[in-house]
Design brief:
Chain B: InterPro entries: AMP-bd_C_sf, ANL_N_sf. The complex is a heterodimer of chains A (230) and B (436). By secondary structure, chain A is of the alpha/beta class. Chain A is built from six helices and 13 strands. Chain A has a domain of 156 residues: Rossmann fold, CATH 3.40.50.12780. Chain B is 30% helix and 23% strand. Classes of the chains: A alpha/beta (230), B alpha/beta (436). Chains A and B meet through β1, β2, β3, α2 and β4 of A and β2, β5 and α7 of B.
Amino acid sequence: MTDSSLQKTTLLPLTIGRFRNTDGGFTTLPFSLVEQDRARRYALRVLNTFHFRTGSNILLTSTFDETLQFMPFERAVMTYGMVVVSADSTPWDGKRVESIARRFDLTAAAGISKNVVDGLNQLGFKIEELLSGIPVWAKQDAYDDLKALPGMQVYRYLEAGPLVGFECSQGNGVHIDRFEWNIDEIDGEIVASSRLPRCVEFNNFRTGLKAHIDRSACNCGNTDPRIIPE
Amino acid sequence: MTELDDRYLDPAVETMPREELERLQESRILQLVPYVYQRSPLVRELWEKHGVTPDDIKSLADFKAKVPFMDKDMIRDFRDRNGDPFGGLACVGPPHMRGVGFTSGTTGDPTPLPRPEDNAVLITLKRELWHMGMRPGDHLTYLLFTFREGMIGDRWMDTGFTPICVQHSPLDIPYLVQISKEYRPKSLFMISTPMILGLEQYEKNTGENIKEAFSSYEGIVFGGEPMSPHIRKLMDRWEFPVYELTSLGDVATATECSAHDGMHTWEDVALIEHLDPDGNTDAEDGARGEMVVTALLDDVAPLIRFRTDDLIEFTRKTCVCGRTHGRMKPLGRKGDELVVNGKSILPIDIFPFIGDFPETRTGLFQIIRPQRETETLKLRVGYDADALQDGEDALKARIKERINAELGLPSDIELMSNEEMVKLGPPNKIPRVSKS
């Protein structure tokens, strides 16, 4: 090979997602395949604590812009050998969510938001009847209401700026990937710094999330720190 | 090194001579036939009923002559009889089956579309975006109208395009404008009537210069349903370089090229048959016919000689863009056809004028079709009460007068608020024909 046949370049981002700012707007976030795969491996560590059977179905509700928030989770479910059954997490897709719950033997559901619950309610369906007895990861806006319903097995699916995480089978706080993020609690707010090369790196990023951090080993055996929102 | 023709993403396939293309189809069909017979419960049941086995199929001609058709009703019937959500189509389970997406559900319970790790279907779109000017390193505004096909933002690695994923919702217009200004993307896939109306409103409310914000785009794909004159006018004013898109019978998508003379039906991905609407024989090239599809690159749940119920005009003449695959112009669903006093009416006949009134410019309407033949054209029309000029009765009279002028038919008009109309269907799409 001659020198002219080689050219060093920087690889492009895989895709561009976004996260919500504390002021309600959005910041775009390019991320690479390497970051995506690290996040997938993190998600797999948490999923493993449930000991699901391979070949089973997981309902995932999301919107198309939420690549940062849900693509690693979706790929982890697939790596595990389970099938992801998809519906929009908008109030207008309640019919599809109901149809999936009726026709598919679901093992778990993730990404359940207030919009999903509202959409089902508008059609006269009750989420506690459709998803009772299976693990349901709920977004912050639906977590408290769902947790109060009888028969529901509810876990947190948390988003705080660029941080994304979800609860393990113990349900006692949201694990955050300790290799990817260094998190701190400053004045009751979660602050995050990235630890590895990323398309966009973060240094003491204030997430706006009021919570505390539990760094003790979780009963699930995972030593990632856990965020417990106020 | 051999120089590739940069006009095409995949020059060898896109410009493949017809004879070679048919040979490729035949090789894929002959691999598919024993595979689906052994693995798809619906195919096995259907072929046994018709006395067909893989041994009977030795050529593409045999396939077209002997393999029985399937349709949506058969899939739903199999699903309900057997409690199989995939309607007997699935040839494999997990782990090769990785995810399940769905059809829109406009005409009933959504039909599941299971998929493997990587879905070959996007190749058709990649070819068209390349043709519009996208090259490695360019940004694509990825405004897919649903998440129900799963997270596919990482499916563009083999093109070098970087997708920016945006929610297809009028509520997300500020973000769409933000990223269009920040990243200067070259293509946008895809925009729809509700998004265009959202942009119009955003322009009014904020004074944003939409033409300038979107000036980096060399291709904006429009789909979902036919374009109304009001929508066309808005996009012309903003100088959007528009390419129309339609579904290729739930197998893939078909999009216009720069010739704007039909949407390319990529025949290495799907075998297209174009049949006389009143029978099972081939329709003439360029004539109106029903589209029948066979998925050639789907090993999870391929549709085999699936009668789409879609009426199309179809030609296999080489396009001026140099590509050799067929082209179609969608006309509507065969099951939607209404015959009023002997005249055939499809939604495509209503789209061109229904949005011309200030009160009805959203273009929302439904043809009421209690049976195939009627003496009066009954329409349910969406309207904006705030834009009413001279009362509901006067609006009805104006619409009736216009229908008479355009179609020469008597009509009966039911008005419904836009807000109520959009509740009649799934997001961004309502059924254009209703029994009642």
